[in-house]
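Weekly puzzle thread! Below is a chain. First person to post its structure in token form gets bragging rights.
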Amino acid sequence: MKDNTRTLLLKGMKDGVPIMIGYFAVSFTLGIAAKNAGLTPFQAALASLFNNASAGEFAAFTLIRSGAGYASVALMTLIANARYLLMSFALSQKLEENTGTIKRMILGFDVTDELFGISMMYPGKLDPIYTYGAMLLALPGWSLGTGLGALMGELLPIRIVSALSVGLYGMFIACIIPQAKKDRVVLYLIIACFVLSGIVNLMPWFDIIPSGTKVILLTVLIAGAAAVLFPVKEDEDGK
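Winning reply:
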């Protein structure tokens, strides 16, 4: 391995340590959700290894628990993880033009909020080796945390498992509250999500629609309406 490559890899691994620690803690509660959906610890860890996304995995585990079909799970996962497509577009502009397809595909395999953040802050053009170093720690931390959470879900008393299950909801609340306080549009959309979800689940007219399909339809409906009614304006410099 060339010295420059080794240096970049080690720097990425160093910056990936706090991400790994955070991922391990968060994914532990995700493992509880996987266990409640009927997955084994190995299956939970494998799911996180190939789908490093809290919202996408939680949505998938929720649908699996409700008995949704493969198509519903795949579609909901795609919708929940759609923002990573935009992050990938941004990262592609950060790379040198001669960066090979294989390197780009490896980089695109694990685009997360945190890895995207440190990659975009990399000075100058991004060398994928740096991000690979962070991925080497972040991805196993997420996968092992999920597997351990599922394992502990099988060993711990049911009351403790139920209490830990609430942790993931707390994480999502922590994600939406700061943004809702800064942006009234986001606040109104969150309220609309709660209200419409409650109506759909309480009204008997919607009982013929599978629960997984309800989630997908509401997600597309609310997100689409928000995009049309409240488009995000570009800055004057076009960024």
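Puzzle host: Confirmed. Bonus trivia for everyone else. The longest helix spans residues 3-36.
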